[in-house]
Amino acid sequence: MTDDLQRSVSAGQRSPAIDVETPHAARIWNYWMGGKDNYAADRAAGDAVAQVYPEIVTMARESRHFLIRAVRYLAAEAGVRQFLDIGTGLPTMQNTHEVAQQVAPDSKIVYVDNDPLVLLHARALLVNTTPEGVTTYVDADYHDPEQIVADAANVLNLNLPVAVMFMGVLGYEPDFERIRSILGTVMAAVPSGSHLVAWDGTDTGEAVVEGGEKLVESGGVPYVLRSPEQLARFFDGLEMVEPGLVPIPEWRREIAGIGAAERLDAYGAVARKP
């Protein structure tokens, strides 16, 4: 547990009961990203996946770089000042509010998650970085998009553009059409000029599929890998921002001044609501 988190708990906020014997999705991802908020069971599950699909560690870190580039683009080039980050996971380096408020200090960010552990960390670590901006969180499940929209409306002005973000979380719902319905509900609630940002793992290699099987064998929550063609349908009715849906290391890599990217079984895109 980090010092900031320990101070938050000591200050009187109740800590959720933590099962350290069962692998936890957010903690496994934290481990792959090089974080410290994980336990032996999480590391064992993470290592089991990495043994057959070592690129998972690169994927975890590239996913954060994709988030950074996408948020910078939205704040600096698209002029977006409101961000709805759904399924945020455990805070790590360069979170959405930090990136957005560095570019535009008046940015408002609403994080959404339904995991008690994530929310505990959010209270301690997702702290506003500028006097002008707003950073807050909502305790909600993305299967209840109406609640998310209602709660977000307490902070965000839904008459102005919003960047809606689903970063590597949609595979927790196996029903493809249900995911499309969730996305449709949230995007219908935001105006023209809003954007959808999403990435997810893809079934584009045998090793990544085997890695998913190892995750389940280790006690982790199953995660559905979809094809790039299926992911593209998440953006139906929206206008893709160049370069469209691509492996996440390839999305606007040039704006970060980075050279050739490793190809990964993870695709992402940013798309604008017309």
What report would you give on this structure?
- It is a single chain.
- This protein is α/β, with parallel strands linked by helices and 274 residues long.
- Helix content is 39%, strand content 15%.
- Strands 1, 2, 3, 4, 5, 6, 7 and 8 form an 8-stranded mixed sheet that branches.
- The protein starts with a helix and ends with a strand.
Concise overview:
With 274 residues, the chain is an alpha/beta fold. It has helices at 3-10, 25-32, 40-52, 55-76, 96-103, 116-125, 145-152, 176-188, 206-217, 228-233, and strands spanning 82-86, 108-113, 134-139, 163-167, 195-201, 239-240, 246-247, 266-272.
Which helices and strands, and how do they pair?
Blueprint (H helix, E strand, L loop, with lengths): L2 H8 L14 H8 L7 H13 L2 H22 L5 E5 L9 H8 L4 E6 L2 H10 L8 E6 L5 H8 L10 E5 L8 H13 L6 E7 L4 H12 L10 H6 L5 E2 L5 E2 L18 E7 L2
Parallel strand pairs: 1-2, 1-4, 2-3, 4-5
Antiparallel strand pairs: 5-8, 6-8, 7-8
Helix pairs in contact: 1-6, 2-3, 3-9, 4-5, 7-8
